[in-house]
């Protein structure tokens, strides 16, 4: 069967008051019909979430499923939810964790795609226009079905040339019009003064004004998890860390051809293998689409061309709390977003062809490219430093293209549904925002091709995990009823929705006057220990699952995540009865994940024993004086004992383990001491912006200032100079 491009929507953009009123009336009636559908659906929803072991038992014991979905990303989870709510017996397997791939490494936007609309208009491309229209419909639906995980985000488009103002304003207004009744808020123009008031970090030189439009933002990994958990509550048998070894086939007696009838699966954690039989198998494996297609038939051509998108996270002070920024034309023609997220700032993305790998690594050249583009839009007063990059990641976009194409930037991310001769249903391409409509198209095709008994999709308006009982003010109840910190309560409400009460009930008493419950994993982030316990209920099997996808600590700050790891492993070890050997393995694997996939390696390489020292003689003299305040014996190096002695003299006390960690960050040759040359390499890296917020550098500077104050002679003169 030939590949079909799946594009839906109407042919024209409606405008005008009467048409808008008619559209709103239609929308209201449409929602009423959806509510009636959902009432039928809700009766089958369970409040109890089966354990992972129970899910594996269901996969083994069920004689035959109607649908087996391979892949636990946004699209695969969406397919499972669509199938199970059509009353199809549904299974889903994922070889890693839910959202472990591309679905957790996005720009965190729920959007129609301003740049796709621009291409559609410039190239008169109806297909891209319809993709944008479909995405805007899905944006509205996603904001409605998971209000706790989503939010409106105003995005500023700064204008530096007068002629660009009408050009971009017209484009953004068309974006509003295409959304129609589902337009989030109307876009508007800002004067230069107002733009700088709202985004004070913006470069003011030659700024003409700005345009602000609205899109949605979400917590992508937790959104993916919410979709999967919702499918499980409706009765789908879902299991992470369960890989497909090979596809099962049987000869169809009527057609005389081999047909896919399930998959041989392996529990990655235990190594046990078992068969999962199904009338229909859906391939929703994202960048790994072609691997499963070739498992079906080695002769199948590649239909997926992967593209790497790198993002970086920098401190929240780089952007306002409630305003994003769009650079529509970077130095090489790409688009860069600069967005507030989880009280940090995300910048990205790149778009370069790449090899398919389950563990993509952010490259230093991509990180520097993003930093350079950010500098072009921020005020010279704001020093954009390499050392401020707290985390970085690369996600592989599963773009659908002609295998002969070389330019991934010009590829439209429409999705395709393909059914092979053996009946394998493949869904490929698309984008995060349209996961639901992609799933609907996939199930429509599967039902038709396999003669499954099922009605139409019921997922429009279907509330996801945590949406029930959530309100914008529920965090106040969490504070009042459980004694949680306000910041922690807000975080729990926005991450778990109505399920936040379950997390709060698990929280341990702190023993302090306030907060009463809720011990933080690390001081500067609102993640608490009970979230680790709850993560296991949400099928977390490894420490990486917790730091990367149940919480987002690994994506926000790799050093903070590393600091939290021992406690996370300890809590999981007790809950899952891990051996000491397993604990060590988990700790090591999580550190490797942070080091390579979350940018810790690129960060640590900014300071090495081969780093060039670019300090002036005056600076070297100043730092030598500072160093000798700690190195009293002129050994040429300092140890934790030296630092401890100086700190005690100024009444500062830090425990030995913490001091060891602080010095170890600068001990480049790992000999247990910091030599003068290493200290100069540190200060040179700080000067160049390659390293920031280094604890030893700040500690030694602060201690020197305190020592200088105590060493000053005390004057005996009266303030007025009298006798």
SSE topology:
Layout: E1 4-6, H1 17-42, H2 52-61, E2 65-70, H3 74-84, E3 90-93, E4 109-110, H4 114-122, H5 126-145, E5 150-159, H6 164-179, E6 188-191, H7 192-198, E7 209-218, H8 220-233, E8 237-239, E9 242-251, E10 258-267, E11 273-283, H9 289-296, E12 304-315, E13 324-327, E14 336-341, E15 344-348, E16 352-353, H10 364-377, E17 391-400, E18 415-419, E19 425-429, H11 435-450, H12 474-482, H13 486-496, H14 500-506, H15 529-537, H16 543-550, H17 553-556, H18 558-576, H19 580-596, H20 600-604, H21 617-628, E20 637-638, H22 640-649, H23 656-664, E21 674-675, H24 676-687, H25 695-711
Parallel strand pairs: 2-3, 2-11, 3-8, 5-13, 11-19
Antiparallel strand pairs: 1-18, 4-7, 5-7, 6-7, 9-10, 10-11, 12-15, 12-16, 12-17, 13-14, 14-15, 18-19, 20-21
Helix pairs in contact: 3-8, 3-11, 4-5, 12-13, 13-14, 14-15, 15-18, 18-19, 21-24
Domain EF-hand: 618-653, 654-689
Catalytic activity: a quinone + sn-glycerol 3-phosphate = dihydroxyacetone phosphate + a quinol
Subcellular location: Mitochondrion
Q: Can you describe what's shown?
A:
This protein is α+β, with helices and mostly antiparallel strands and 723 residues long. Helix content is 41%, strand content 17%. The chain contains 25 helices and 21 strands. Strands 4, 5, 6, 7, 12, 13, 14, 15, 16 and 17 form a ten-stranded mixed beta sheet that branches. Strands 1, 2, 3, 8, 9, 10, 11, 18 and 19 form a nine-stranded mixed beta sheet that branches. Helix 3 crosses helix 11 and helix 15 packs across helix 18. The longest helix is centred in the N-terminal third of the chain and has 26 residues. The N terminus and C terminus are likely disordered.
């Amino acid at each position: 069967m030939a590949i079909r491009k799946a594009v839906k929507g109407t042919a024209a953009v409606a405008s005008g008051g009467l048409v808008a009123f008619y559209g709103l009336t239609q929308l209201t009636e449409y929602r009423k019909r959806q509510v009636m559908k959902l009432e039928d659906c809700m009766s089958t929803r369970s409040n109890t979430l089966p354990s992972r072991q129970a899910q594996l038992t269901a996969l083994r014991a069920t004689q035959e499923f109607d649908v087996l979905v391979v892949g636990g990303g946004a699209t695969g989870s969406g397919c499972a939810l669509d199938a199970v709510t059509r009353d199809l017996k549904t299974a889903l397997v994922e070889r890693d964790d839910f959202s472990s791939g591309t679905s957790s490494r996005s720009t965190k936007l729920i959007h129609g795609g301003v740049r796709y609309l621009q291409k559609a208009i410039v190239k008169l491309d109806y297909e891209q226009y319809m993709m944008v229209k479909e995405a805007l419909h899905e944006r509205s639906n996603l904001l409605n079905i998971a209000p706790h995980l989503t939010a409106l985000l105003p995005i500023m488009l700064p204008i530096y040339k007068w002629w660009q103002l009408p050009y971009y304003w017209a484009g953004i207004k068309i974006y509003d019009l295409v959304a129609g009744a589902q337009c989030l808020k109307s876009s508007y123009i800002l004067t230069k003064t107002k733009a700088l008031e709202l985004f004070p970090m913006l470069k003011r030189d030659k700024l003409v004004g700005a345009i602000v439009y609205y899109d949605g933002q979400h917590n992508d990994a937790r959104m993916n998890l919410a979709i999967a958990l919702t499918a499980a509550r409706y009765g789908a048998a879902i299991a992470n860390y369960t890989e497909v070894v090979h596809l099962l086939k049987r000869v169809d007696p009527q057609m005389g051809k081999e047909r896919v009838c399930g998959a041989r699966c392996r529990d990655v954690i235990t190594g046990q293998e078992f068969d999962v039989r199904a009338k229909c198998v859906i391939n929703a494996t994202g960048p790994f689409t072609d691997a499963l297609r070739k498992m079906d038939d080695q002769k199948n051509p590649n239909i997926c061309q992967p593209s790497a998108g790198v993002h970086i996270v920098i401190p929240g002070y780089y952007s306002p709390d409630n305003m994003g920024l769009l650079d529509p034309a970077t130095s090489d023609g790409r688009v860069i977003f600069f967005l507030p997220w989880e009280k940090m700032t995300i910048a990205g993305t790149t778009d370069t062809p790449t090899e398919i790998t389950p563990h993509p690594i952010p490259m230093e050249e991509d990180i520097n490219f993003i930093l350079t583009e950010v500098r072009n839009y921020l005020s010279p007063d704001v020093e954009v430093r390499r050392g401020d990059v707290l985390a970085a990641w690369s996600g592989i976009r599963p773009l659908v293209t002609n295998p002969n194409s070389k330019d991934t930037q010009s590829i439209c991310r429409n999705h395709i549904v393909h059914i092979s001769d053996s009946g394998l249903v493949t869904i490929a391409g698309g984008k995060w925002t349209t996961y639901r409509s992609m799933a609907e198209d996939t199930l429509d095709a599967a039902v038709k091709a396999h003669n499954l008994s099922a009605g139409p999709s019921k997922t429009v308006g279907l509330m996801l995990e945590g949406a029930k009982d959530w309100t914008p003010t529920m965090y106040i109840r969490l504070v009042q009823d459980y004694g949680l910190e306000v910041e922690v309560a807000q975080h729990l409400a926005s991450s778990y929705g109505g399920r936040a009460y379950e997390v709060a009930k698990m929280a341990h008493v702190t023993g302090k006057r306030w907060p009463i419950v809720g011990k933080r994993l690390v001081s500067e982030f609102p993640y608490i220990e009970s979230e680790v316990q709850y993560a296991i209920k949400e099928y977390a099997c490894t420490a990486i699952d917790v730091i990367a996808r149940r919480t987002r600590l690994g994506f926000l700050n790799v050093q903070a995540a590393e600091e939290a790891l021992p406690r996370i492993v300890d809590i999981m070890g007790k809950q899952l009865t891990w051996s000491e050997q397993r604990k060590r393995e988990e700790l090591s694997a999580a550190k490797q994940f942070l080091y390579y996939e979350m940018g810790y390696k690129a960060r640590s390489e900014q300071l090495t024993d081969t780093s060039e020292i670019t300090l002036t003689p005056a600076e070297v003299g100043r730092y030598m004086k500072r160093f000798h305040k700690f190195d009293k014996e002129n050994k040429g190096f300092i140890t934790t004992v030296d630092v401890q002695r100086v700190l005690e003299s100024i009444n500062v006390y830090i425990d030995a383990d913490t001091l060891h960690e602080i010095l170890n960050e600068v001990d480049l040759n790992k000999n247990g001491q910091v030599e003068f040359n290493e200290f100069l390499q540190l200060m040179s890296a700080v000067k160049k912006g390659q390293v920031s917020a280094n604890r030893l550098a700040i500690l030694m500077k602060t201690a020197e200032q305190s020592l200088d104050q105590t060493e000053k002679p005390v004057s005996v003169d009266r303030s007025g100079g009298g006798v």
